[in-house]
Amino acid sequence: MYGDRERVERMERSKTGEAGSSDLSGVEEHARRDAPANPVGVPASAVRAMTTFSAADQEKQRGVRRMKLTATGLLLFVALVYVLAKWAQNSGAGAVAGYVAAAAEAGMVGALADWFAVTALFRHPLGIPIPHTAIIPTKKDQLGVSLGEFVGENFLSEDVVRQRLRAVGIGSRLGAWLAEPEHADRVTAELSAALRGALTVMRDSDVQAVVGEAITRRADAQEIGPGIGKMLEKVVADGGHKRVVDLVVSRAHDWLVLHDEQVMDAVQGGAPGWTPRFVDKRVGERVYKELLRFVTEMRDMPSHPARGALDRFLTDFASDLQSDTETRARVERLKGEVLGRGEVQDLIASAWTAVRSMIVSAAEDERSELRLRVRASLLSLGARMAIEPKLQSKVDTWVEGAAVYVVTTYRKEITSLITDTVASWDAEHTTRKIEAHIGRDLQFIRINGTVVGSLAGLLIYTVSRALGA
Description:
mainly alpha, 22 helices, rod-shaped
């Protein structure tokens, strides 16, 4: 009981201006300690914003106090004028005193009525629990629900969202913005940073396992023989293999020229032991010369019979890969053996590391081909969007559809953020903070009520006197 009474006394002193900055800090400490727990989904910053008083809030609260004193002083002034005017009227001062008394009396009524109305928003007038007073602290949650429903019905409807976005013209504005080189550079840099971040977060082992499994499963599920056969058939028909043959024959010729003695020694080493050495040497020289002549002729003669034989072999092999069951089965068995080797699996797994390193390096280098192409694509896209109505319409339609989907699908979640946030605020502290923000303007209602009431009273008294006369 003592703690509650102390807290009430301290809060009353802060409201009437008697409490200093230390008392205000104490009230804030109570508000923070008594504030409800942060509900799920409500940002902590939103709760802190309504449970703490900033320096700006304190300055606004001092302004409210000054305006309260001004409005109350005006009420006391018209009350004093009323007393003096009635005394003068009773003392025979004349008809003027009656007019002044009527104006002052109506001013008091207007001031008291508006004081009651303004006070009833934030607390019970004079501490009396009159019905329909202290509206903000007692109806805070209902106000939050009403505010959420109002926002949902008037700001999150499909028609409103589409109309607003269509009026903005996002497609043309975005196009004009992207068409500027500095903006394209900025977007490229942001995309590069996002790409680097994503690749850094991803675990290499997980990606390698996924890539290896995907490649192996895809290779196992699809027969490769017919595909290789079709590709080989097209290569042979187009003569694409001839460059490979030229390269192999040319390298073979050069190798034979540089390794003549090794070739002849190999031939002599394979001869029977009973043959004379000079015969073995002659045979080795003869075999080497014939082999060199064959390779030279094959290199220099595009129409060499060996080349034709190779063409026919490749053509037949391409056909067998597509139609011969045994050949296709042998290729599949070879594929399975190759994929099953550990070296191949390691190669597949390490491919991700190489690709990731390449992409990260390209994303970090401002002059890399990747970033230059992305920048050029953004500039081209921006230029097209800025002048092509059809493309602008597509972008606007996509943005409108995405926004409408979000607001229609998550409207309840969006409005519940407002409702839950208001519900999480401490009623007493929220009332004080709202009063600090709008109370100064509300005090003008009291002043206006005093002035308007006085004028209305004077007018009524004048009309009554005129009709009575």
